[in-house]
Specification:
Elements: E1 11-14, H1 21-24, E2 41-44, E3 47-49, H2 51-62, E4 69-72, E5 81-82, H3 85-88, E6 113-114, H4 121-138, E7 144-149, E8 157-160, E9 163-166, H5 171-185, H6 188-195, H7 221-248, E10 254-258, E11 276-279, H8 286-298, E12 305-307, H9 324-340, E13 343-348, H10 355-360, H11 381-391, H12 393-397, E14 400-401, E15 406-410, H13 412-417, H14 423-436, E16 443-446, H15 447-451, E17 462-466, H16 473-484, E18 489-493, H17 508-514, E19 518-521, E20 531-534, E21 541-546, E22 549-554, H18 558-563, H19 567-577, E23 582-584, E24 590-596, E25 599-605, E26 613-620, E27 625-628, E28 635-637, E29 640-642, E30 645-652, E31 657-663
Parallel strand pairs: 1-13, 4-7, 7-10, 10-11, 11-12, 12-13, 15-16, 15-17, 17-18, 18-22
Antiparallel strand pairs: 2-3, 5-6, 8-9, 14-24, 19-20, 21-22, 23-26, 24-25, 25-31, 26-30, 27-28, 27-31, 29-30
Helix pairs in contact: 4-7, 9-11, 16-17
Length: about 675
């Protein structure tokens, strides 16, 4: 690995108890074995003993399989951080060393770790001291490849005895909020003019109630800015930790290990806090999250991606955990998705732990029915595909996924402020899957990237807004101007831009694009949304034309439209505006199109666990030669060039994957 975290070779590492390494040898992992120790011992400030990390690593090496490892530090782990006893002893005298809840409440109990208040100067000093000490200790140890923190972070939220709570209260936090506002607005008069308020001074501004205590169905400028500041503060905290590492040990990359992006906080600033982003999730969230972090990587200069905590056993087919053949195919599907989407550093784990982990996560390589002594049939698929991708690693490392012409917006202001709370995230996930299943791939982008110029609307032919009620007017103006360029499609699930990013009435894009329909919020089941639009087409869809562009407004969730069979028409509109560069006639395959100069590589997977796929693949453009690289010598595939398409037949068994090279 390079100092910036980029991977010079594909790495399939492992994490399990050291004593299992001998049994795991047939799985052909690379000689990277993660440690699990995440805390030093410490008797006083400035005194940190890292011998626990070193001793564990020595025990792993004694088994004879591992040559490299990594270093964990439990900082920003869930909602807590490593807290030595000498620091915890100070809580009684200074309770604000831990996060403050308002109204007061009891923080969840954490053994050896606490929900430290990152606004407190003493906590910030402690973090710098701890992380710098670790960096200096391991700076010259090239047997450790990277550091890891931000493990499944909750962002600016904590667990309390009564459930999730927001942080941002107390003397230090509120002082920081007011400083942030002063830096943002300059003077109180400008803030009052923007907020339409009459605050006497920045010091007179108090934070809003915790939304997990007091229900919040509509935001206002105070609340919107408070939520934005909380998100910024979390990133500033992680950035402090990251910079301390980079100053102490600049040659070792830092990885963040997330599983909650898009939920409690967005990922726009993620690469300010690490060199490499790892993302893991189960089931329906895994592929939308994979697309999201892949777009974050692309628009930050193709920064590295990884998979540290590996959820291979709990994807869409978790309910079939006792069926070995289908789960073998599921393992290949998961490995394909990771590797095809640039997760070139992977650490496979969850092997042999407590009984709930064996069943809940289903990631053990050995059969629990036989006391974990017999290799499961599914596990034997891993070395086959590890070796296949290793053989083709230069093809993968030297190529990039072809950019999509469809932008699925992650509307950050709406994510923070919507009611229902997760409406944008759920709508984005449902729309993603509707597209993905037909090989409509997307760039899943935070709205900040369009506002700051990192991404340009001109790069897209279709833009999808998943319940983006709160949308900055400059972005609404960009979208309206983009539509006027002609031949484009805007799909808004819900009344996009009804409010601006501060919660003030807006409706700019509704007026300029949709003719200002009358919108009424309807009663809907908990966690759902529905609107009535007048005039409307009566099918939950409002359509408008802007020159030769089309705009579509959904007044109910995509899931409801799908249940009524209304999605095919929307997909046809997307196809017309942003035709797929590659497709198969039966929509049986998952296809990832990569490019390296004029050469294209097509990664094809049959995602079915039970049925073979036999179809014709159609690639936009004329390619004279196609070679199936599944065989070391390559097998020529007959192609037929007609009009603007290159076509060839492709058959894949259940769960089978291959890579084809296409040359002009």
């Amino acid at each position: 690995m390079a100092p910036d975290g980029s991977v010079r070779r594909i790495i399939y590492g492992n994490r399990s108890s050291a004593e299992w390494q001998e049994l795991e040898r047939p799985l052909r992992f690379d000689p990277l074995h993660s440690t699990v120790t995440g805390t030093p011992s410490s008797s006083a400030p400035g005194q940190y003993d890292w011998s626990g990390h070193l001793q564990e690593w020595e025990n792993i090496k004694k088994q004879g399989a591992a040559e490299k490892s990594c270093l964990l530090l439990f900082m920003a782990l869930h909602d807590n951080c490593y807290t030595p006893k000498w620091l915890a002893d100070r809580f009684a005298a200074d309770p604000e060393l831990r996060h403050v809840l308002q109204p007061p409440g009891e923080l969840a109990d954490r053994s050896g770790r606490q929900q430290l208040n990152w606004w407190h100067p003493a906590i910030r000093d402690y973090a710098r001291e701890l992380v710098s000490h670790m960096g200096r200790t391991f700076r010259d140890r090239d047997d450790f490849l990277f550091y890891l923190f931000q493990w499944e972070s909750y962002g600016p939220n904590v667990s309390a005895a009564t459930g999730t709570r927001e942080v941002g209260y107390g003397r230090y936090a509120e002082q920081d909020f007011r400083r942030w506002l002063a830096a943002r607005y300059g003077d109180i008069g400008r803030l009052n003019a923007r907020w339409r308020s009459n605050h006497a001074s920045f010091d007179a501004i108090a934070p809003p109630p915790d939304r997990y205590v007091t229900e919040r169905r509509r935001t206002d400028p105070l609340t919107a800015e408070w939520e934005a500041w909380r998100e910024d503060s979390y990133y500033d905290w992680c950035k402090l930790i990251y910079q301390a590492w980079k100053e102490a040990d600049p040659n070792k990359p830092v990885m963040s290990g997330h599983n909650m992006l898009l939920r409690p906080f967005n990922g726009a600033r993620l690469y300010e806090t690490c060199d490499t982003v790892s993302w893991h999730s189960g089931g329906g969230d895994f592929m939308p999250g994979t697309a999201y972090v892949h777009s974050l990587s692309r628009y930050n200069g193709h920064r590295p991606l990884a998979q540290y905590e590996n959820f291979w056993g709990i994807q869409e087919d978790h309910d079939r955990m006792s069926e070995e053949l289908p789960k073998r195919h599921a393992a290949v599907k998961y490995l394909f998705r990771l590797t095809a989407w640039d997760r070139f550093l992977q650490v496979w784990w969850y092997s042999y732990t407590s009984a709930p982990y064996l069943t809940v996560y289903d990631g053990n390589y050995f059969d629990p029915s036989y006391a974990l002594t017999t290799l499961r049939y599914r596990s034997a698929a891993l070395p086959v595909y590890f070796d296949k991708f290793r053989r083709l690693q230069r093809t993968l490392l030297d190529s990039k996924v072809v950019p999509s012409r469809i932008c699925l917006l992650a509307p950050s202001a709406s994510n923070r402020n919507n009611w229902p709370y997760d409406a944008s995230q759920k709508e984005g996930r449902d729309l993603f899957w509707a597209l993905f299943e037909r090989n409509h791939l997307v760039e899943y982008l935070p709205e900040e990237y369009l506002l700051d110029g990192r991404a340009r609307l001109s790069d897209f032919d279709a833009v999808i807004l998943p319940y983006a009620l709160y949308l900055a007017e400059p972005l609404q103006e960009q979208l309206a101007a983009w539509l006027r360029g002609g031949g484009r499609l805007l799909l808004a699930a819900g009344p996009a831009g009804l409010y601006d990013e501060l919660g003030l009435d807006s409706g700019k894009i509704l007026r300029e694009v949709f003719g200002n329909p009358t919108l009424t919020a309807m009663e809907a089941p908990t966690g759902r949304w529905q609107w009535r639009a007048e005039p409307a087409g009566g099918d939950g869809i409002v359509r408008a034309r802007v020159g030769t562009s089309e705009a579509i407004l959904l007044t109910e969730p995509a899931a409801d439209l799908k249940s009524r069979g209304a999605l095919p028409g929307l997909l046809a509109a997307i196809e017309q505006a942003a035709p797929r560069p590659v497709r198969d006639r039966r929509d049986q395959l998952e296809l990832v199109f990569r490019e390296a100069g004029a050469t294209r590589y097509l990664l094809a997977l049959n995602p079915s666990l039970d049925e073979p796929a036999e179809t014709v693949v159609e690639v936009r453009g004329r390619y004279a030669q196609a070679t199936d690289l599944d065989y070391p010598e390559g097998i020529s595939v007959p192609v037929r060039c007609e009009d603007e398409w290159t076509r060839f037949p492709l058959s894949l068994a259940p769960g089978e994957a291959t890579i084809l090279r296409l040359e002009p």
